[in-house]
What does this fold into?
Amino acid sequence: MLKFDIEKQNGLMRAGVIHTPHGDIKTPCFVGAATRAAVKALTMQEMRDLGSQAILANTYHLILTPGPDLIKQAGGLAEFSSWHGPTFTDSGGFQIFSLPDVKITEEGAKFKSHINGDKLEMTPESSMQAQWAIGADIHMAFDQLAKSDNKKDMKDAMDRTHRWLDRCIAEHQRLETETISVPQYLYAVVQGGNFNDLRAESAKYCAAKDVDGFGIGGVFVAEGMAEMLETVNSILPNDKPRHLLGMGQEPIDLFVGAEYGCDTFDCVAPTRMARNGSLYTHDGRINIKNAKYKNDFTSLDPECDCECCKNYSRAYLHHLFRTDEITAKVLASIHNEHFVVKIVDRIRDSILSGTFKEYKNQFLARYYSAK
It folds into this structure.
């Protein structure tokens, strides 16, 4: 069983440590989205330098290329990517069910590669097999994303996710007994969309299973996130970690997630926005491409100690983006990823010091007052 120590707790909110074979994760923690075994525009050394503790790769994308077997030959995800720290894999369910021509049966999902059109299939068993080959410390069970917001569709997808979870657990346990390697751990995924009664039902189902932790997945409305997380995390066992899947574009998501009992987060948005010139500052998000930054020789954010903010001006970043220099995307990605990582690190510090409410109110009032 994955070891998770809680250092301090106040209601659902807690600070703790997840102990993995590749190192400890001090929680709450923002996990870098290394979708294809890489965080876009950043090296793993840059990720270490900006303070990242862990990365999350995507099974769907790694199945397409380079393939789980090649990653296994390299020694697993951490060795292959030169990360050498704690690693997660998402099952790829979200990406597969977002494809236009996916066909869902009780057995699994049939779809075409977006790279070359090859016909492929993923089942709960093959997802577990791929994730074991990829060799991340923590795997997500294969789940179904509903194709609409209709409650019946949501319930049907949730029920199938539960049936698939049982198959994931059985295959995970089979591989665990047959594979001679460092331990690997399995998270169940709670579904139910924006319907709190379905979320409660899913949480109860997952809580009763022999898993190491929980992912909270699916598309949901940010405005209702607090109520949903309170519902779910009041049901899930307190002694196991919880990962909020795909949330972290807005700083408020991280504060709400931590306040209502989530321990880790991942999101591609910080680096995606960075590559388009949308950059976080303590006074709100800015578009560095705007003409008003052409002659602005101040730091992007004087309160940030990332490589970008310590060494370069807004005018220089504006110039890099306007001339389409690759360096623009690198520096912007360093900054945005660092900014979000540090928000969550400070959330952790504030939980430990008992000052979370003050930090939350101060940060959010300043960040959103400029909008």
User: Anything to note?
Assistant: The chain has a mean pLDDT of 95. The chain has 15 helices and 16 strands. The longest helix spans residues 151-178. The longest strand covers residues 3-10.
